[in-house]
Amino acid sequence: MDEPILKARDAISRAEKLLVFTGAGISKESGVPTFREADGLWEKFKAEDFATPDAFKRNPREVWKWYRERRALALKVKPNPGHYAVARFEEAHEDFLVATQNIDNLHTRAGSKNVIELHGNIMHSYCMKCSHKVDESETELEGDVPTCPKEGCNGLMRPKVVWFGEQLDPHDLERSFQFASECDCCIVIGTSGLVYPAAQIPFLARRNDATIIDVNPEPSAITPIADYFLAGPAGQIMPQLVEE
Ligand code: BJW
Ligand code: ZN
């Protein structure tokens, strides 16, 4: 086993407060596309046409079609060894948090319990008029642009995800920032580290002198502050970090 992997494993096993911060790369080996790679979503779909409040106002039907397709994919795929390794850390560390930018629900399906979904969850929707929430894994919403199932409301439903220009849930963000500012080890997996405010998380951990471990086949915006850059796919690297 490589020396950096052994050292990273040691830092993880010694950590009293362990944070895992993930992005689209951890789900790539499950078959979920990333955003900013050559074969990523933003190559085929413009973010401003699908992932902004304005895009939804202009063309709710197209936006819903895109999210329904992505939801169907998220339901079809399975967590990979990277997600399962993260869930194993939680068994060994009492003070533990996964802060994910992913909306695919795969951490929870892999058995992670303490998960903050910074950018929402593709399985949920809410009414833009009365905020009524619906979990689509239980009830499929009907119509090209579904309307609120609450009697007499008729508001437009939208996916419960965070689009560009929208605020992240302030409570979730604050909890992640607080945890990052207090952790002694932060494992960053599969993110370009370009989208804010989420990308602040590893920098807050660094400021607290936490050991930063970056798992990614390519260097990212986080790599310069990493103590250990473990180059490779999460599904291969992460299982090597789990203590037997
Ligand atoms: C592997 C791998 C393998 C490959 N294993 N790894 C200028 C400067 C700074 C900020 C801004 C700015 N202009 C605008 C902003 C703000 C903006 C922002 O950050 N923009 C930047 C892009 C410039 N942020 C926002 O708008 C946020 N809101 C906000 O700021 O609100 C302020 C406010 C305050 C008060 C009132 C109102 C507002 C919201 C951001 C929401 C982002 N949403 C999305 C879409 C979610 C829904 C959906 O999926 O449809 O979230 S965008 C997209 O990017 C998605 C992701 O969660 C997010 C991060 O992407 P991620 O996960 O890092 O993926 P990639 O593709 O970038 O990287 C994948 C990585 O995996 C790569 O490094 C690969 O190498 C690696 N990889 N295979 C491990 N096997
Ligand atoms: Zn409603």
Produce the secondary structure layout.
Blueprint: H1 3-14, E1 17-22, H2 25-28, H3 41-44, H4 47-50, H5 53-58, H6 60-76, H7 81-92, E2 95-100, H8 106-109, E3 115-117, E4 120-127, E5 133-135, E6 157-161, H9 170-182, E7 185-189, H10 200-207, E8 211-216, E9 228-231, H11 234-241
Parallel strand pairs: 1-2, 1-7, 2-3, 7-8, 8-9
Antiparallel strand pairs: 4-5, 4-6
The structure holds ligand BJW and zinc ion.
The site of zinc ion has 8 residues, from loops.
Q: Can you put this structure into words, describing what you see?
A:
- By secondary structure, this protein is of the alpha/beta class.
- It contains 11 helices and 9 strands.
- It has helices at residues 3-14, 25-28, 41-44, 47-50, 53-58, 60-76, 81-92, 106-109, 170-182, 200-207, 234-241; strands at 17-22, 95-100, 115-117, 120-127, 133-135, 157-161, 185-189, 211-216, 228-231.
- Strands 3-2-1-7-8-9 form a 6-stranded parallel beta sheet, sandwiched between helices.
- Helix 7 (81-92) runs parallel beside helix 11 (234-241) and helix 9 packs parallel to helix 10.
- It is elongated, with a radius of gyration of 18 Å.
- The two termini are 14 Å apart.
- It binds ligand BJW and zinc ion.
- Zinc ion binds next to loops.
- Ligand BJW binds at residues 23-26, 28-29, 34-37, 40, 51, 101, 103, 119, 161-162, 164-167, 189-192, 194-197, 215-218, 220, 233-234.
